[in-house]
Inverse folding.
């Protein structure tokens, strides 16, 4: 069985795990993913780790495209990962806002 090699930030790991059975059934390929912190995945790619698909932040993918590490005209947004922050009860007051 052929495999699709994925290098991705950890946020997409659940997504790829959920589509793997259907992908195997419909395409006859398995998904072989390496997931982790986006900076670490970027380093793996630039160090020569093989990948058919790279899922990282838009900013990192733009930099990788400019360096020729990924095909520039294949970079596309696929979603948004929301990040939140909170302060511990009893801790110092923080000025937290949304851009």
């Amino acid at each position: 069985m052929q495999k699709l090699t994925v290098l991705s930030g950890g946020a997409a790991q659940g997504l790829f795990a959920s589509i793997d059975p259907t992908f195997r059934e419909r395409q006859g390929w398995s998904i072989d993913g390496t997931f982790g912190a986006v900076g670490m995945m970027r380093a793996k790619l630039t160090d020569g780790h093989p990948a058919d698909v790279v899922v990282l932040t838009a900013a990192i993918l733009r930099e990788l495209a400019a360096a020729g590490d990924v095909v520039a005209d294949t970079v596309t947004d696929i979603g948004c990962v929301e990040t939140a922050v909170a302060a511990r009860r009893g801790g110092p007051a923080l000025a937290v806002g949304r851009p």
